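Per your request, structure below.
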């Protein structure tokens, strides 16, 4: 089976060497997740790279904050992953029990497709790490 890119976080695989992504959709999902979780300034030689999802964690959960997150995700994806077409970005559901129990909870579901591929993919991220 072809190896596309190193799988993150780096870990030794059973075959020896580091684990790797084995399909284009898997590699793209890993790259999209990296883009969203990377804090701007964290990546060497490209201080503009990244959405920095965690920096929004302690901001008010208001429509303008959600709009800012959506806009940042769309602009960063257009710049760094132009072959990814984002269909929808769904933010934390206020009816979610985790959202009610703590104000420091953020969940995002991104529905996207990869240019020239027919399937639609979903990436779900949350600050409590239970749905990654």
């Amino acid at each position: 089976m072809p190896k596309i890119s190193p799988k993150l976080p780096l870990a030794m695989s059973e075959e020896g060497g580091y684990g790797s992504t084995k399909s284009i959709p898997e590699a793209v999902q890993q790259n999209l997740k990296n883009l969203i979780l990377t804090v701007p300034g964290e990546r060497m030689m490209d201080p503009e790279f990244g959405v920095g999802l965690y920096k929004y964690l302690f901001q008010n959960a208001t429509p303008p904050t959600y709009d800012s997150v959506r806009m940042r995700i769309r602009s960063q994806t257009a710049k760094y992953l132009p072959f990814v077409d984002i269909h929808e970005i769904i933010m934390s559901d206020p009816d979610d029990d985790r959202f009610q129990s703590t104000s420091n909870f953020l969940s995002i579901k991104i529905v996207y497709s990869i240019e020239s591929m027919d399937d639609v993919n979903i990436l779900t991220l949350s600050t409590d790490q239970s749905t990654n």
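The CA atoms of residues 57 and 92 lie 11 Å apart.

Regards,
D.
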